[in-house]
Amino acid sequence: MASGIYTDTASLARLRHDAHGFSLLPRQPLSSLLSGRKRSRLRGRGLDFEELRHYRPGDDIRTMDWRVTNRTGKPHVRVYTEERDRPVVLLVDQRLGMFFGSRVKMKSVVAAELAALASWRVLAQGDRVGSILFNDSRCLQSRPSRSERLLLNSLGQLSTMNGELSADQAATAKPDQLASALQLAEHMVGHDYLVCIVSDFDGWDEACLASVKRMARHNDLIAALVFDPLEQDISPASSLVVSDGHFQLQVEPERRELGRRFEASFQDSLSDLQSELRKHGMPVLPIDTVSPVFEQLRQELGRH
């Protein structure tokens, strides 16, 4: 759908063709957000021992097995291969608060597109990808798999959840559903998973932080923070109409410094969240609702 209000399975499937030029997995280029010891704690895939063989010119001397070398009198090196399996789990927020967009797309659509792009990319790299899709009433779980059929099924569930969003749902909004989704993720992931949370992080609290801390002990986490430019800078709006699905209220941001207070509140919340997550080695990717999502991913995650 071109409207940007909703998405559908076909649109999410077509994003497969744009899923290149970035990687959620390690071995990032130097310019990547995820590169560098101070920028990220991503562990990488790890190495599996494959064989012991004679030293060849050009071999890294750090792989020398000195015990075997001393015993045989001939230089031997240990050969390792990179582990092939790095499961990725995407938590995708489709709550009512994501059903907002001032210009190009709804945050809910951007979150769905980001999840689709990331899923197709992980699958193309030969790794397993799974998801936890959540709205204000339920969480749908899909365990990591390399199956394209299962991925398409998950994207179908995501588009259905996206299409169910409506302003009439105001009375059912549940900010604590983010904590529920994170707790579900705790039970899904084991060790050495990569968990990517795609959300506006409304409802972030101590329970969410506790889940993140526990998962971060043995896994890597990335936060894709979806926001609308109007949340960051409300000054372009001379007049707004706010609705709870039943009543409407016209608001003038310039009056009583409402706009400045709104922007300050957003920036404070954003800074606190980024500081808290990065404190626990969790990179934060700000993703807006205006620029194409695949371009933002390439900019944030580097070409790979």
What does it look like?
It contains nine helices and ten strands. The chain has helices at residues 9-14, 66-72, 107-124, 148-163, 177-188, 206-216, 229-232, 258-279, 293-301; strands spanning 47-54, 76-82, 88-93, 129-134, 139-145, 194-199, 220-227, 240-243, 248-251, 284-288. The model is unreliable at 27-32 and 35-41 (pLDDT under 50). It is α/β, with parallel strands linked by helices and 304 residues long. Helix 3 (107-124) links the parallel strand 3 and strand 4 (129-134). Helix 3 (107-124) runs antiparallel to helix 4 (148-163). The chain has two domains: 9-35 and 85-301, Rossmann fold, CATH 3.40.50; 47-82, no CATH class. Strands 5-4-3-6-7-10 form a six-stranded mixed β-sheet, with helices on both faces. A two-stranded antiparallel ribbon has the order 1-2. Strands 8-9 form a two-stranded antiparallel ribbon. The two termini are 29 Å apart. It is 35% helix and 20% strand.
> What is the beta-strand fraction?
15-25%
Q: What is the 3D form?
A: elongated
Largest sheet: 6 strands, mixed
Under CATH, the homologous superfamily of the largest domain reads von Willebrand factor, type A domain
Query: Which oligomeric form is depicted?
Result: single chain
Radius of gyration: 22 Å
CATH class of the largest domain: Alpha Beta
- How many β strands by DSSP? 10
For the record, give the distance between the C-alpha atoms at the N and C termini, rounded to a whole number. 29 Å
Widest β-sheet, arrangement of strands: 5-4-3-6-7-10
